[in-house]
Amino acid sequence: MADLENFEVQIHRYERVLVAVDSDDFGSSRPAFEYACTMAKMFHLPLGIVSILETGDLNIFQTLSRDVLSNQRTAVAHLLETYVEKAKNFGVLEVAPYLSEGKPGRTIVDSIIPMFKPDLLVVGSERKNNPNDIGSQASYMVRYAPCSVIVVRS
């Protein structure tokens, strides 16, 4: 109790924000993206935007077809660039896109976070039956991310 009585509240600031957006789920990505952009703009923080091409969603024939995989990569890259432009138009000064492939939670925690080095990860979450949506990956990221994680519900 003595520690609490001598404690003075200080401003807690983050230095770098990373937001995960799902190419298949704008409903849960939108609130997370808006929150991350708001934080980045208000506090002049660098913003990383990550989207993961979920290769596990493709069937075996699609993964063997170079055209299908290439088209999927192009579509996710275009979506990511759209998010980058939206963030810049909103007033975020420094924005970096990240595109990778695999399971969203694991890929973000193991590959993207070490690369971008955020101290805050923002993810959306929406209850759905599909366990591969980025929202259902939120619990994995909350559990294993080495930084603070905010889950924004739609």
UniProtKB/TrEMBL annotation:
Q: Give TM regions.
A: none
Q: Which residues belong to any copy of the UspA domain?
A: 14-153
CDD domains (alphabetical): USP-like
What InterPro entries does the record tag this protein with? Rossmann-like_a/b/a_fold (IPR014729), UspA (IPR006016)
Q: Name one Pfam family in it.
A: Usp
In terms of Gene3D superfamilies, this protein maps to:
HUPs (3.40.50.620)
Quote the protein name from its UniProt record: Universal stress protein
Q: Which organism is it from?
A: Agrilactobacillus yilanensis
